[in-house]
Amino acid sequence: MQEPVSGPAVPVGAGEVALSIEAIRKAYGATVAVEKAAMTLMAGEVHALLGENGAGKSTLVKILSGVVRPDAGGMVLKGRPYAPTSISAARAEGVATAFQELSLLPNLSVAENLLLPRLPKGVAGMTSAAGTWQAGAEILARYGLDHIDPGAALESLPLADRQRVEIVRAFVNARHVLVLDEPTAALADTQWLFDHVRAATAKGMAVLYISHRLSEVRALCSRATVLRNGRSIATVELSAATDGDIFEMMVGRRGHAARRAATSTAATLNAPVVLSVSGMAGDTLKDVSFELRKGEILGIAALEGQGQRELFRTLAGLRQPASGTISVDGVAQALRGPSHALRVGGGIAYLPEERKTEGILSGLSAASNIVLPILPSVSKAGLVSGRNERAASEEHAQRVEMSQRYLSFPIGDLSGGNQQKALLARVMATGAQTLLLFDPTRGVDVGTKQSIYAAISNFAEQGGSVLFYSSELPEIVQLAHRCMVLYGGRIFSEFTGEDIDEQALVAALIGHGGAERRASAGVH
To answer: What is the pTM of this model?
Structure first.
């Protein structure tokens, strides 16, 4: 007798509605952030929420998480009304969120962040440090993060591990609905996250997944709800919608692919050298040497922890190399800080990786943030001229296609995409001829990405030079004249022009084919 063939496992509770959202509205004064937003999440489903920065995604996430209260509309969780008044109240109902802008407390330990507000108590009723450490270690081990010390201060961890801790805390607190807001923005490898998401949905969890990376969305999600201008445009089966269809729903028009700078690769290879690095070594770097030429866009590809962060911070003057030489316009320099880097040669300006903690001054307007490096030029008798500040900020905002209406807003109130545009406008406002851009489109929407791509390309076409790291390989393929792959703190491979191919980059990222590729490119 033939044994029955078993099909794929059916998620626990599949077919049941986990959470429904109906006609949600939220306004801040005259600004309507969300208007008639609606969505249904099914148990055992990974459901994508898509939209441009400013479309209302962050507001909807805050409403789901209990951070803000809606003005109208309602939510139903597992058949019961759901109206959380705080993050703790949402968690008590079984809804937990891993936020894009990390909500962890940097001065506390990893274990304390994972367990707050319920830390283990000792025999005297006091918080038990040993118990907290042990409980934190058990959680980290459960999620495959044994390499993280539960007693380490969170601020001592690299960004990728801080993001993993944020995600794990949400997993631990979610029973019915898990909200992941740009969870892979700082993760070079998605497999760890995807494995745990699939394990959770197999047990009946509903996951709301917010990401601007459509390749990830397609790999993980079955359906997607698209927001535009705060409204739900449609919920679609991803298997039946093309990327063009989704982009059109998001922005109201068809998209265009990013373009490589018009300056030819051959022309940049013969251009003058503006930045030269020879034998640089440090904590993670080992004998790194390369040249950046006038008008060139040079991409850096690397998995997490291969030395890219140290490289950029050293070139920005934020740390000193253990050995090696940095030359700007042919003159060896000991860069003593970002302000010094701006003054040497044609100037070097740095766009940091974390806009929230390293970039923006959230209480100031977007205009004030943009003109920070050029305050003397917008001041009169030591006082900032509002008229000059506005004029200068408008000029540089235009370079990154940032709407002038946002310039008077506190930058902390703007979407992540507009914050990133303002920071890029700021580094361009310095007048530096060399830009160091660390993951310049991390966590921004497809429309904002196109604006940033165009600004980078235009900068290079006008003779500027760009060194940029990106966690998204298609970005490097589209933009870079050359690409170097860092592996183990060394320049493992180099690709030029049409040889910059995503498949070849993936192989190099994991240590395959480096010697042959470096030899063919003339790298020694």
So the answer is: 0.65
